[in-house]
Design brief:
The chain has 79 residues and is mostly beta strands. The protein has a single domain, classed as PRC-barrel domain (SH3 type barrels). The protein is built from 1 helix and 6 strands. It has a 6-stranded mixed sheet, with helices on one face. A hairpin with a 3-residue loop joins strand 5 and strand 6. The protein is globular. The model has no long low-confidence stretch (mean pLDDT 85). This is PRC-barrel domain-containing protein. It comes from Natronolimnohabitans innermongolicus JCM 12255.
């Protein structure tokens, strides 16, 4: 079963299949996460309290790219 993305994922760390940190979820919209690869301290804190945001650096992660969603979001190794 494919993991689902919800607004609860805002602020979570996104890692690749090898455990490398890729950024934090800045925003979730229509089952897609927008990941900020270089969050500032302010952006990190705002995301932790549920304030969504996005900017031109963010990249898109879709549900079919996910291995698991828990305390952190892990991407599949074959993407």
């Amino acid at each position: 079963m494919t993991p689902q993305l919800t607004d609860d994922e805002v602020g979570k760390t996104v890692i690749d299949a090898e455990g490398k940190e890729l950024g934090i979820v800045a925003k979730v919209e229509r089952d897609r996460a927008y990941v900020d690869p270089n969050p500032s301290v302010a952006e990190h804190l705002l995301a932790k309290i549920g304030v969504e945001g996005d900017d031109e650096e963010d990249y898109l992660v879709t549900e079919d790219m996910l291995e698991s969603v828990g305390d952190e979001i892990r991407l599949r190794g074959d993407i």
